[in-house]
Amino acid sequence: MTRDPWEARDLARVAVFAALIVVLGLMGPVPVPGLVPITAQTLGVMLAGTVLGWKRGGAAVLIVLVLVAIGLPVLAGGRGGLGVFAGPTVGYLIGWLPGAIVTGLIAHSGRLTWWRVLLAAVVGGMPVVYAVGIPLYAAIGGFSLEQAALFTVAFLPGDAIKALVATVLTLLLFRAYPPAFPPAVRAARARTAA
């Protein structure tokens, strides 16, 4: 198993991606009556995993969750506070953490290729988040699992587009600025270039 030491600037990378997740939530959330608001925050979660990897991407999401818990208005519509964790959308919010981790694990499991990054963004950003979100949405919202899953169908097209955007942005960033990525990813790039 290769070591993945954190560099001093990793804290800055993690903070930047936590801020990105917050900003993507504040940019024009689309309210859906009775449902989870449509935001671009899952794009930030996908990018955190594809760029930073599982440890750093998970840390970025964890920072956002802590900011929510202490009451900062960092979610769609300026929401924040412990009350968010009692609402029916909490599962999707909590699902961001395993989503970023799985995304990072898949994306950084080998050479950073378009198909691996896309697979990572799709799997980590959709089924993993949904696997946590749907059951809690059903339980807290008083729906059956089938009803909650049916509500989620409305998010599939947007989340698929976010996965494509995350893939393109990750690969462009990798070409333009490799220092944004963990040392192991940069080292793999150097080995294939040699």
TrEMBL record:
Record's bilayer topology term: Multi-pass membrane protein
GO CC, one annotated term? plasma membrane
Q: Which InterPro entries match?
A: BioY
Q: Which domain of life is it from?
A: Bacteria
- Which UniProt keywords are given for this protein, alphabetically ordered? Cell membrane, Membrane, Transmembrane, Transmembrane helix, Transport
Pfam families reported in the protein's UniProt record:
BioY
Query: Where is this chain's protein located in or outside the cell?
Result: Cell membrane
MF-aspect GO terms: biotin transmembrane transporter activity
Q: Which PANTHER family does this UniProt record tie to the protein?
A: BIOTIN TRANSPORTER BIOY, BIOTIN TRANSPORTER BIOY-RELATED
Family that this chain belongs to: Belongs to the BioY family.
The name this protein carries in UniProt is Biotin transporter
Species: Microbacterium sediminis
